[in-house]
């Protein structure tokens, strides 16, 4: 069962997170196994552009989520999404 919304997926691949709405960010984290923590992104109104600007410290302290999940969210999701965005948007 995939919870990733249609607007965050293009041709079977994740679309550019810079275009994600808050709901897309929330759905992405729910679909990747962080259902409980996804609500923190909703509460803080983190859309795709905000997600791409987040630092490690923002994720660890700004979202009020437990350290273990916060580390995994940053290292395995936020940082790779930022890297992917930079690689695909270099002029």
Provide an overview of this structure.
This protein has 91 residues and is mostly helical. It has a single domain, classed as DNA polymerase, domain 1 (Orthogonal Bundle). The chain is 58% helix and 4% strand. It contains 5 helices and 2 strands, in the order E-E-H-H-H-H-H. A two-stranded antiparallel sheet has the order 1-2. The chain starts with 8 loop residues before the first strand and ends with a helix. The mean pLDDT is 90.
Distance between the termini: 37 Å
pLDDT below 50 for ≥5 consecutive residues: which ranges? none
- Mean pLDDT reading: 90
Number of domains: 1
Let me know the largest β-sheet: 2 strands, antiparallel
Order of helices and strands: EEHHHHH
Number of strands: 2
Output the strand order for the largest sheet: 1-2
Query: What is the alpha-carbon Rg in Å?
Result: 12 Å
Q: Helix content range of the residues, please?
A: 55-70%
GO biological process, one term: negative regulation of DNA-templated transcription
GO molecular function, one term: chromatin binding
Protein name: Sterile alpha motif domain-containing protein 13
Domain SAM: 20-68
Key structural traits:
91 residues; globular; mainly alpha; DNA polymerase, domain 1; 5 helices; two-stranded antiparallel sheet; 2 strands
Helix-strand blueprint:
Layout: E1 9-10, E2 13-14, H1 22-31, H2 35-43, H3 48-53, H4 56-61, H5 67-88
């Amino acid at each position: 069962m995939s919870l990733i919304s249609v607007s965050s997926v293009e041709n079977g691949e994740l679309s550019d997170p810079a275009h994600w709405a808050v709901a897309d960010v929330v759905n992405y984290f729910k679909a990747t196994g962080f259902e409980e923590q996804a609500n923190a992104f909703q509460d803080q109104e983190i859309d795709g552009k905000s997600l791409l600007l987040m630092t490690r410290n923002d994720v660890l302290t700004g979202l009020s989520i437990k350290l273990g999940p916060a580390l995994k969210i940053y290292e395995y999701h936020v940082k790779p999404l930022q890297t992917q965005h930079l690689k695909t948007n270099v002029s």
